Amino acid sequence: MSLAFTISDLRRRPEFFNTVAMRIWQAWWEAEGTSLDYISGRLRENMSDTPIPFALVAHDGFLRKAGLDPAGTTSRAQRPRRNASASACEFNSPP
Is 36 exposed, middle or buried (0-12, 13-18, 19+ CB in 10 A)? Predict the structure, then answer.
C-alpha cells in the first residue's frame, strides 16, 4: 500500500507553520514546561532565506516535519517519543 503525500519546504507552505509548531511542542517540549512561544520562535528560524536551517513538512495525506539545524541539536534518542507526527523534530534546550 502506498501513501500519497507531498514534501515541501516549510518556507513555501507557511500555512502549516502553526500546526507544525504545536505538534513539535506537544510531542517533545510541553511536558518539560517549555513554552509554545519558545518553540515557535525556534521554528521561525527555519523560515529565513538562508539555506540552513530549514524545515520540511509532509502534507496532503498526513502532516510531519523534519529539519536540518547545524548548531548541534539534542539527540532524539534522549527524548521519549510522544507523537509520531513529530518524530523528526529536534531543537536545543531553552536557556
Answer: middle
pLDDT in tens, 84-94: 333 344 444 45
| pTM for this predicted structure | 0.65
Do the domain assignments include residue 92?
Answer: no
Residue 14 C-alpha from the chain's centroid: 13
In a domain, 95, yes or no: no
Domain that holds residue 58: 6-86
HSE of 28, CA atoms in CB hemisphere, 13 A:
27
Q: Does residue 94 belong to any structural domain of this protein?
A: no
Regions in the chain scoring below 50 on pLDDT: 72-93, 95
Element (H, E) at 41: helix 36-44
